[in-house]
Amino acid sequence: LDGSYMRSLGEGKECQFFLQSLTKIAHGLDIQVIIESVESQVQWDRLSTLNADAAQGYFLGRPE
Question: Model pTM?
Fold first, then answer.
């Protein structure tokens, strides 16, 4: 999932619902879901409901 969705995540329930639906569709098609641009604890907490296969971003580990 593109990082632009992560920046919009706190703006309302619509984005959360959209991402949950997109994740369910992807998993239904046997496609792995990787979330980009996780940059805060708030985003990480909200993303826990998505059941993504992996995530990346500054919150999880900065580049060396």
Answer: 0.76
